[in-house]
């Protein structure tokens, strides 16, 4: 067994085709286990870890980590903070740990456990076992016959997805008072709700659909045996009122934002495929798709991650923005690093780390419409006087497929080859040698 050990800087470590033991220590590490059954510890820092082939054991540690399991039966613990974990082929064990995690099981019969805070879970293909505990959670078991535990009274509201091709899922500890069933674009009238001999166990199926597509809701942990069909039907939510949190990890503009075009500013929601918008690097580019996610007030109350970031007029500099603007929390905004290079900073980090924006509280009335602008390539567009990113569809999202499939429906999934600028992590922002500033040359080319 080979042993690789990083120092206290940002390390790049690559294992062999044999079983390796790799420790990243501090720093923002890039680790590739290679072949063989590896033991990998990312340590502290925001790490990117690929297990490679073999049955790997991976610990993300502290920091906002991105972990790819690779082929094999892998065991992954994300550790603390907000992690993104991708399983692959094989029967993987994924543990989110603390933080707002996104967990993707991939193929195989996976075991996925989210213990604390808010979680987004996609089981993928296979007969998965999924557990959620404290905090809010969105669970899409994917194809296969899944066992899902929502843990009854602990924490916030849970959302579990049901629809065509989902297989036969059993949902334990569903709370009919606070939990929801997300039915996507299906009409509530397409859902057949059937009681069983136990008044605390009901079955959902599709009218005229595949009999193998069904979901059992079980709240036998509770003494509440007087729930009616109407009360269960009230727990059904569609895409018109609820957008899964994973969708909102994609860059989103709020409706009403004005984007620079060759003909002047236009409200972004009025764009249509083929319309031209100005880009920072490549001049006018046609819109390929404009996708929409609508978030109801109750969803924002239940999950603050769905609430937008507000950048006040002039907060980034004169005319930047030229009016108050709203972005999703994960949206990348163009900034200039102390060395003069252009980078992107997430909107939430503008608020939490740089004090240039504010995290908005949940709306108590009126839904919020987010729009995802896809140009075919990753570009920077000028919206309300601020350069920010369009929708980036990299290998991580294509591998998970779930968030994209909800936006693109049956259309073939597109891809963008590379990020238009580096996207800084929270730790990189804190470690910057000087202040981050808005970029020069704010005015879009005409």
Automatic annotation (TrEMBL):
GO molecular function: calcium ion binding
Biased composition (Gly residues): 32-45
Pfam families documented for this protein: HemolysinCabind (PF00353), Hint_2 (PF13403)
Gene3D superfamilies: Serralysin-like metalloprotease, C-terminal
UniProt keywords, alphabetically: Secreted
Region of interest (Disordered), ranges: 1-56
Residue ranges occupied by any Hedgehog/Intein (Hint) domain in the UniProt entry: 251-394
Record's subcellular location: Secreted
Recorded GO CC terms: extracellular region
PANTHER family xrefs: S-LAYER PROTEIN (PTHR38340)
Protein name per the record: Hemolysin type calcium-binding protein
Organism: Rhodovulum kholense
């Amino acid at each position: 067994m080979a042993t690789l050990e990083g120092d206290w800087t940002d390390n790049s470590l690559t294992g062999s085709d044999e079983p390796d033991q790799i420790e990243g220590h501090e720093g923002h590490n890039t680790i590739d286990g290679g072949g063989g059954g590896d033991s990998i510890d990312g340590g502290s820092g925001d790490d990117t870890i690929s297990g490679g082939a073999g049955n790997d054991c991976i610990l993300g540690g502290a920091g906002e980590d991105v972990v790819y399991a690779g082929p094999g039966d892998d065991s992954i613990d994300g550790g603390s903070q907000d992690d993104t974990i991708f399983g692959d082929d094989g029967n993987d064990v994924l543990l989110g740990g603390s933080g707002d995690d996104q967990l993707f099981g991939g193929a195989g019969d996976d075991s996925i456990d989210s213990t604390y805070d808010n979680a987004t879970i996609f089981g993928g293909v296979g007969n998965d076992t999924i557990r959620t505990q404290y905090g809010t959670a969105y669970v899409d078991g994917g194809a296969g016959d899944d066992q899902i535990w929502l843990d009854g009274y602990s924490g916030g509201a849970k959302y579990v997805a049901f629809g065509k091709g989902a297989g036969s899922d059993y949902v334990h500890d569903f709370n009919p008072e606070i939990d929801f069933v997300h039915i996507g674009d299906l009409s509530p009238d397409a859902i057949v709700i059937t009681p069983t001999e136990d008044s605390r166990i009901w079955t959902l199926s599709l009218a005229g659909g595949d009999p193998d597509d069904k979901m059992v809701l079980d709240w036998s942990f509770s003494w509440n045996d007087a729930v009616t069909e109407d009360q269960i039907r009230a727990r059904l939510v569609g895409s018109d009122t609820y957008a899964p949190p994973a969708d909102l990890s994609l860059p989103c503009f709020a409706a009403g934002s004005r984007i620079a075009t060759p003909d002047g500013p236009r409200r972004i929601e009025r764009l249509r495929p083929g319309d031209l918008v100005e880009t920072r690097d490549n001049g006018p580019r046609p819109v390929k798709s404009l996708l929409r996610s609508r978030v109801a007030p109750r969803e924002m109350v239940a999950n603050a991650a769905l609430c937008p970031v507000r950048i006040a007029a002039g907060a980034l500099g004169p005319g930047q923005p030229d009016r108050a603007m709203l972005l999703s929390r994960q949206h990348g905004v163009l900034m200039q690093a102390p060395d003069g290079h252009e980078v992107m900073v997430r909107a939430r980090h503008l608020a939490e780390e740089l004090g240039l924006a504010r995290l908005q509280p949940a709306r108590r009335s009126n839904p919020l419409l987010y729009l995802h602008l896809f140009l075919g390539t990753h570009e920077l567009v000028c919206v309300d006087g601020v350069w920010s990113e369009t929708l980036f569809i990299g290998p991580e999202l294509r591998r998970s497929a779930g968030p994209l499939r909800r936006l693109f429906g049956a259309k073939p999934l597109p891809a963008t080859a590379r990020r238009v600028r580096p996207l800084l992590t929270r730790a990189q922002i804190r470690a910057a040698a000087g202040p981050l500033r808005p970029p020069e040359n704010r005015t879009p080319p005409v």
